[in-house]
Sequence to fold (307 residues):
Amino acid sequence: MMPRVWQAETSDDSMETNGSLQLGTELQPPGLPVPVQGASPDEARLLDTQRAFDSVAQDYDGPRGNNELIQRMRRTMWDAARSEFFIGSRLLDLGCGTGIDAVEFACAGYRVLATDWSPQMVARARARIATAGAGKNAEARQLGIQQLHVLDDRFDGIYSNFGPLNCAPDLSEVAAQCARLLRPGGKALFSVIGRLCPWEIAHYVRRRRFERAMVRLRRGDVAVGMNRHTIWTRYYFPREFHRSFSTHFRLRSFKALSLFMPPPYLIDCYHRRRDWCEKLGWLDDRLGHLPLLRGMGDHFLIVMQRR
Fold:
């Protein structure tokens, strides 16, 4: 599926998807689902999500979808990937979006199959790969996370950045497919949208929008609006997320992303108080792995190893 849930940057009533669903601003009211004759509820929701990401693909790398706070989270993921995956490893990118991560790793010497459910995102990723001259090491393919069963390949590592797995309708099936595709001992590195984001709760409670402040604590699918479309997402605590993978994967580690630092949709706050926010980022880097704290934040970064 796609990266991050991108929250819109329009008003206090909007919200974004990497990431997470891709980045964000605030929660927009969802658009009306488009009925699909003969489609199951899961299939219809996946098509809703696909249309949403198709609609923003052309400007997804702009300031709303790739601002300084998103870039900071992305660098943290890149550093973790370099420490977990050997150069030359064959990697599978789930929800590649416009291909920023795939090109970064391809240029560093990894061999990457970049996948996304959105045809327009895949087109952007292919163009980025070609422009970077990374075609020898990277390929982009339209493939949803729910379609991993069609792959017949083996990988040294699998990664996903900014919340594509939050859009997966059956996380246990994703776990089984990831285990099938990974070589024994291979690792999975995922950036996932978390349930407990103190910044978000404080932001909405201050505005007396109490229901919105608690939206991540809802169970099941949550309709997130983006560009007059609907993205269907689920939020997780790290150990809750790992339970779906526990049959096939050992939990290696997890850490908070954007716990002290504002989440990406509060980029205006960062611009107003940049020096202060950079100090908060210093706390993220040094304390985000600690017990209690590591389960909070806008996202969490989790590392698992195939049994």
